[in-house]
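User: Could you walk me through two proteins back to back? I'd like the raw sequence and the structure tokens for each, with a short line separating them so I can tell where one ends and the next begins.

Assistant: Of course. Protein one, sequence then structure:
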Amino acid sequence: MDSKIKRIGVLTSGGDAPGMNAAIRAVVRSSIYYNCEVVGVIRGYAGLINKQFMGMQSHSVSKIISQGGTILKSSRCPEFRQPDVRKQCVDNMEEAGIDALIVIGGDGSFRGANELFKEFDFPVVGIPGTIDNDIYGTDYTIGFDTAINTAVSAIDKLRDTADSHNLVFFVEVMGRDAGFIALNTAIATGAEAVLLPEVPTNLKSLCDYLLNERRKNKTSGIVIVAEGDKEGGAVEIAAKVKRRLPDYETRVTTLGHIQRGGSPSCNDRVLASVLGHGAVRALLDGRSGVMIGMVHNEIAYTSFDMACSRHSEINKSWYDVSHILSL
């Protein structure tokens, strides 16, 4: 282990994700186990700029493993793109005696971490925390499992109303650039159709399909729409379908930020705990400029360059499965 690292900083950046607190807890307690001090950085990169540092002990993270959100808070920090601001952040960390940094967030957060590593050779390791599950180098990201379970629960409830009133619900889920949430929830809820950023939307085919479903006396319809679909969000898609099928009763539900909240699932707690511990070990073993992920249930390391330049891809065969099982 690298004995030069005696104090580790940890921050959460970008959109919050269920399980971030479990990761913070793992970082704090693993650091203490390996005789390192821990400094929490409040409000992400903005906290580095403003010296919002907080010493953390084992009791600082008691009972947070079941909490959603992040006790360290998060924020967007566009000023961090400026080289002189990043230099000030490194100076602030050195002044506080922080020898290395763990960043919990998505690809935008990792781009910032990569700049610290490349420009100043500052030891940084990333932990993937985003509900979108689109980070390259890990099978799953922290928060994804909770988000899809939240979406499935909501859509199951919508199905009751759809059945009762012969409605077609267009349900918008998060996923501006990736359809992982949409595809998984569509299969799990038996949705009639799913629209993804990765697959071009054919409105004529969608309308023909819905007409065919009605002919088979189906009493309801659920269409899952990823927010990044090229034809628009659920509101726009529903309006276009209504113009083509004026006799259909349609409703729109946008799940929005509810998918980010709530107590993390067992899977997310375990993933966050293992990756949090692994991030500390990686730093102490001399690794830096990498994201730690889980591939086939084994710890894997991916350079920030690779993690930031590529995205995980959905399983296209699952898209076919979702269509076949909805017939």
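----
Protein two, same layout:
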Amino acid sequence: MDVLRTPDERFAGLPDWPYEPHYTEVDDPLDGTVLRIARLDEGPADAAPVLCLHGEPSWSYLYRHMVPVLTAAGHRVVAPDLVGFGRSDKPAERTDYTYARHVAWMSAWLEAVDLRGITLVCQDWGGLIGLRLATAFPDRFDRLVVANTFLPTGDRDPGDGFRAWREFSQSVPEFDCGAVIDMGTTGTLPPEVLDAYRAPFPDQRFVAGARQFPTLVPATPDDPESGPNRAAWEVLEAWDRPVLCAFSDRDPVTGGADRVFLERVPGTAGRAHTTIQGGGHFLQEDRGPELARVVVDFIAANPVGPDR
């Protein structure tokens, strides 16, 4: 597997980003290629981690407005860059990326960094991957915060918003990650922030993973990952640990998906679910501090004992 690595200088001087990267190497399960995965890791090292997983086509920079709120409350914040994004390595060919491989890469990473007592915060593909991690390693996860994401099996219509996004992602001549983030927010992002989202991708060779992600969402019942996602739902349908839905009110892609979690996951019962006003698909960008305060309050209101 041919692997690209974004030069460090691309990440120098990004606005509101004083954080140094931490790196972990994992082996690809198919050909043994060693991949370096970057993460933000802030706050007390001995505190239970808040694991923040980004989606498409962002990177851990998406969580920059949430980190200060979470660490000020005493939490450790861990936000990895998925393979193909941020400062993590980027396989060069689109065929290198599959849903199963993404789950395998992040499973290997999770075991290598050995996180436990996790509160998961997941959005977009951060949920498609993060919920698979939680159901594969349930003993590592204490709480789930589900925000503008879903876990599709292809048994339901993914909706016009998703179909429009997938068509755009495959037909646009050049994939501009900054412009995509801007389209998914309710405001207009300043040029320096758009450039920060473009920083991981010096040219179109680096966007193979971003291009491929929309095609990997299970949209039909016979998708290769429909079965594994159905199996993950079986675990979630017995999940009685605390689960919070924190969706925004202006997301055309995942709007209404929170109802599925509320209907099917026992751990959602009795929680203070919220709809965050004024947030688009990338609610961390639009309403990051507000979402962070929701997470802080959720953790405080739902302590998890050693015997769960």
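Residues 127 and 149 are 5 Å apart (CA to CA).

Let me know if you want the two compared in more detail.
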